[in-house]
Design goal:
Blueprint (H helix, E strand, L loop, with lengths): L5 H9 L2 H17 L3 H8 L6 H12 L1 H19 L3 H27 L12 H13 L1 H9 L39 H111 L11
Length: 308
């Protein structure tokens, strides 16, 4: 017996998290019906991903070429950091922001096309961005992203490989010339001051990195809220248009009903006039019939004249 097929795994991890368990259980039942008990056990052990991890999996499964480009950029960043190439590193950092932004837009588009996915305004795109940035810094996270079976979002507040020595993103200042033993005794103090200055710069860099990550998360959240509000506005506009269409149809029906009512009133008045005429004619005929009956009852008076 074989384990779960690659296509089955792809289908499961394409499924929105709130439907993952039901889809997994159905796959387990199907494997048992087929007699593949080991596959059923392996499928049953699959865990449901978070919404953010599902979005990253969706990107990896539907757009593997974009995730591959992300891996190439990560290698370039690591190489530039190892060699302390400041100019190239700044250029690659700009490219990183552009690539991650494009991937977030692609994630939003992919999720919109999946039935049952959360609405755009509720997608945790900030966690997706953190995971993509972590994949650029951590080879293990990058491999999990490429697998399309990520279970939870990842984050990394610093830069570079993990673990890694503390690397600087600015060009080092030239080291002071070495002095002969027994020379200037202030050298240890200078080295201590230099270490303190380096530590302070590192602290500031980390603080700025944290603040930048927070600012980007806030921006993404605001953009998601804007997208949700715009979607709600479009929905309201569509609803209003539908109501206005219904009102126009009701107005048309009202005009037609009023015209029909007017025709019915005219017909009623004509019928009333016809009834009046018919009643008058009936009275006249009844009177003539009574006179005729009286004449038949008294034949002697039929031919009399007043002067006879």
């Amino acid at each position: 017996m074989s384990g779960p097929s690659r296509e089955l795994l792809r289908q499961l991890y394409r499924t929105p998290p709130d439907r993952f368990v039901a889809a997994r259980d159905e796959a387990v039942a199907e494997a048992r019906r087929a007699g593949d008990v080991p596959a059923a056990r392996e499928i049953a052990r699959l865990r449901r991903p978070t919404v953010a991890a599902w979005l990253v999996n969706l990107l990896a499964l539907e757009r593997p070429e974009l995730v591959a480009d992300l891996g190439q950029l990560a290698e370039s960043l690591r190489s530039a950091q190892r060699e302390l190439r400041g100019g190239q590193l700044r250029e690659l950092s700009t490219q990183r922001r552009a690539v991650v932004g494009a991937l977030l837009a692609e994630v939003r588009s992919l999720a919109t096309a999946v039935p049952g996915a959360p609405p755009p305004g509720k997608l945790p795109l900030g966690a997706v961005e953190s995971t993509l940035n972590a994949a650029l810094s951590d080879a293990e996270v990058a491999e999990q992203v490429r697998s399309g079976r990520l279970l939870r979002a990842a984050s990394y507040a610093g830069f570079g490989e993990v673990p890694r020595p503390q690397l600087r993103l600015v060009t080092e200042e030239p080291a002071p010339p070495s002095r002969a033993p027994g020379g200037d005794r202030s050298a240890p103090r200078d080295r201590q001051a230099e270490r303190a200055a380096r530590a302070e710069r590192e602290r500031r860099r980390r603080a700025l990195a944290t603040e930048l990550a927070k600012a980007r998360t806030d921006q993404e959240r605001a953009e998601a809220e804007l997208a949700g509000a715009a979607e709600a506005e479009r929905g309201g506009a569509d609803g209003l248009a539908a109501i206005e269409t219904d009102i126009a149809e009701l107005e048309r029906q009202r005009a037609a009903a009023e015209a029909e009512l007017s025709r019915a009133r005219s017909a009623r008045r004509a019928a009333e006039r016809a009834v009046t005429v018919a009643r008058r004619r009936t009275g006249e005929v009844e009177a003539a019939a009574e006179a005729f009956a009286e004449e038949e009852a008294d034949p002697r008076g039929a031919g009399r004249h007043p002067n006879v």
